[in-house]
Design a protein that fits this description.
The complex is a heterodimer of chains A (about 110) and B (about 120). Chain A is an all-beta fold and about 110 residues long. Helix content of chain A is about 0%, strand content about 45%. Chain A has no helices and 11 strands. Helix content of chain B is about 0%, strand content about 45%. Chain B is built from no helices and 11 strands. In chain B, strands 2, 4, 5, 6, 9, 10 and 11 form a 7-stranded mixed β-sheet that branches. A 4-stranded antiparallel β-sheet of chain B has the order 1-3-8-7, with no helix packed on it. The radius of gyration of chain B is 13 Å and the shape is globular. The mean pLDDT of chain B is about 95. Classes of the chains: A mainly beta (about 110), B mainly beta (about 120). The interface between A and B is medium-sized, with 22 and 26 residues.
């Protein structure tokens, strides 16, 4: 069965420092990977997906099939990055399997 | 465009009572999803509709949960009777359509259910 693991429930980073949120997955096929974000008092929303290879709000994520990882990175953290981040996996039919999430706090 | 609407936003009931949640997706979105998010966990898909037909309800506890999407637009999710472990946020999401190509899911604000 497909599974998404986010090993860190909480992550605190100083403003201006690099950020890395870890995500590992288990799936035998070729999944699509996503990062969703939920800012305080806002809705869950898509941040980025691996297939589009974009940088959104300074965040990037590279799919590493060998390590089955899809870590989210940003070189310089900003205070507005504080939020709950979910890694998610989809296989073919749009069904999303979410990880348990990482709460990122940026320390001013 | 208007986002996904859900009501009520909060609900407190006693165990063994029944409750219903309503969702209005983004206009033109054919696919509608209901997720359950228990505190400290990620959202878990309960049921997926394509228009008014069910695509996936494999994780829906059918002995107590039911959902419908009449006319392929609005949807209701019902729990009867509720258990303490049903306390969670119930999220509704919609996307353009169901196909091999992934269409972004847009989430509603959720309904926070507390069962006492």
């Amino acid at each position: 069965a497909q599974r998404v693991t986010q090993p860190e429930k909480l992550l605190s980073v100083f403003k201006g420092a690099p950020v890395e949120l870890k995500c590992n997955y288990s799936y035998s096929g070729s999944p699509e990977l996503f990062w969703y974000v939920q800012y305080s008092r806002q809705r869950l929303q898509l941040l980025l997906r691996h297939i589009s290879r974009e940088s959104i709000k300074g965040f990037t994520a590279d799919l590493n099939k060998g390590e089955t990882s899809f870590h989210l990175k940003k070189p310089f953290a900003q205070e507005e990055d504080s939020a709950m981040y979910y890694c998610a996996l989809s296989f073919g039919n749009e069904k999303l399997t979410f990880g348990t999430g990482t709460r990122l706090t940026i320390i001013p | 465009e208007a986002g996904v609407a859900q009501s009520p936003r909060y609900k407190i009931i006693e165990k063994r009572q029944s409750v219903a949640f309503w969702c209005n997706p983004i206009s033109g979105h054919a696919t509608l999803y209901w997720y359950q998010q228990i505190l400290g966990q990620g959202p878990k898909l309960l049921i997926q509709f394509q228009n008014n037909g069910v695509v996936d309800d494999s994780q829906l506890p059918k002995d107590r949960f039911s959902a419908e999407r009449l006319k392929g637009v609005d949807s209701t999710l019902k729990i009867q009777p509720a258990k303490l472990e049903d306390s969670a946020v119930y999220l509704c999401a919609s996307s353009l359509e169901f196909s091999q190509q992934y269409y972004e899911q847009y989430f509603g604000p959720g309904t926070r259910l507390t069962v006492t």
